[in-house]
Amino acid sequence: MKKLFAILMFLSIAAHAEIHEKTVTVKCGNEKEFRSLVKEFKETPVVMATNEADNVVLIVWANKETQTSTWIAHLPSTGEYCTFGSGLTLRLPKTSQMVNYQ
Fold first, then answer.
1. DSSP structure string for 21-73
2. Digits of tens for pLDDT over the chain (102 positions)?
3. Which of 3, 10, 24, 38 has a CB 3.0–4.6 Å from the CB of 54, allowing a cystine?
4. What pLDDT shows up at residue 11?
5. Cβ-Cβ contacts under 8 Å for 29 (sequence gap 6 or more)
6. Quick check: 71 and 86 in contact, CB under 8 A?
7. Euclidean distance between CA atoms 69 and 40, whole angstroms
């Protein structure tokens, strides 16, 4: 859980000039429970990043048609999938480097 907290702190640093603590709801479950969630919304993996030092895999799952998204941290050491965000209007800003990323 410390690894997940560190990830969330990193995300908050990018959003704020001053570092301060925030509380975010994180829901964790096993792979079967997680797969059921993304299957319900017909989401597929869109972006993935691996932090080998902390043994964490961050994945954004999305459905392009409905614009739903689920943001997760997978902890291979425990087998847990932790959802730390979801949304209903996924989009890429025009200035995003991911627009033409292959």
1. ------EEE-HHHHHHHHHHTT-EEEEEEEETTTTEEEEEEEETTTTEEEEEE
2. 555 555 555 555 555 567 788 888 889 999 999 999 899 999 999 889 998 888 899 999 999 899 999 999 999 999 999 998 888 888 777 777 776 654
3. 3
4. 57
5. 80, 81
6. yes
7. 12
Nearest to 42 by CA among 73, 64, 27, 72: 64
Q: Rounded CA gap, 33 and 79, in Å?
A: 11
Domain ranges of the chain: 26-87
Residue of 91, 38, 36, 39 lying closest to 67 (CA atoms): 91
57, two tokens: 């895999």
What single letter denotes the amino acid at residue 88?
Answer: L
